[in-house]
Amino acid sequence: MNTDMNNMTQTDVPSHEALMKQINETGFAMDDVLLYLDTHPTDAKALAYYHYVTNMYNNAMSAHAAYYGPLRADQVTSDTYWTWMTEKWPWEGGME
Question: What is the pTM of this model?
Fold first, then answer.
């Protein structure tokens, strides 16, 4: 799994592609380890890995929301304007 985002400074803006790659990879890893934990609930290493990838996933989702907008409606943070989808959808040519 790519951890390049963890080594970035605050002045670096990750590319949309890098963030989406991080979100997809960590989301897959979360799903995979959840399936394992369903049958091995006492495996401490697997549980620690789950927390590790969940943290990476949440960081990537937060970064995406900050730089490119929220991917989920529950990530809207504005109190004055509904910002869920103010740009074109990706299939309409948005986020290029």
Answer: 0.74
CA 14 to each of CA 7, 11, 31, 90: distance values in angstroms, whole numbers, following the listed order: 11, 10, 24, 18
Cβ contacts of 11 within 8 Å, gap of 6 or more: none
Averaged pLDDT for residues 75-87: 73
Whether residue 61 contacts residue 23, with contact meaning beta carbons closer than 8 Å, is answered with yes
Q: Name which of 45, 20, 23 is nearest 33 in CA terms.
A: 45
For residue 44, give the nearest of 58, 33, 29 by alpha carbon: 33
- Candidates 19, 34, 26, 31; CA nearest to 57 is 26
Position 34 scores a pLDDT of: 97
